[in-house]
Amino acid sequence: SGSIDPDELRTVLKSCLHESAISLPEEKLDDLTLVLFESADKDNSGSITFEELKAELENFPEVMENLTISAANWLKPPDLEQKKPHTPRYLTRAYWQNNSRKLLFLCVYTLLNLLLFVAAMLYHSYGGGWFMLAKGCGQCLNFNCTFVMVQQKYCHLLAHSDCQTVVS
Question: What is the DSSP string of 3-18?
């Protein structure tokens, strides 16, 4: 939202102390949060800006040295010019390289379904458009059901053979 409320400040302080391996009781953390927040909230608005917090932390070097430097960056809203266009994850080269087997299987599977559909439609072209569509869909349904049954049988055999190996 561009401003920091006391709960957000407490969360950040707790994370910073944890990162710095500093153990602080909850009531002391609450006191630190309250003191820091009230000190930074010059206009008593109930929230502070990043600039107010930064200025206040610079006034307390003992607090700053116990906090990680990145704490202030967590609170800073991103600049609009720093935002780069977000490319969907599946359009990246790394995604395609890491999932090449799965993607190849998916392409072959889709192509096989398409070929079966077209072949069944052409074979039954004498029956009209709806009949051809029904036969094409039926051929794909037969293939997919067979594929599921073979896959289940294969998994069942693997599970059974694993059980025998464990027993013996």
Answer: SB-HHHHHHHHHHHHH
Terminal C-alpha separation, the chain: 63
Tokens of 60: 């307390």
Q: 91: which strand partners? A: none
Cβ atoms of residues 8 and 57 within 8 Å:
no
Concatenate the DSSP letters of all residues of 8-48 into one string.
Answer: HHHHHHHHHHHHTT----HHHHHHHHHHHHHHH-TT--S-B
- State whether residue 101 is helix, strand or coil: helix
- Summarised one tens digit per residue, pLDDT across range 41-85 is 888 888 888 788 888 878 766 666 666 545 455 555 655 555 556
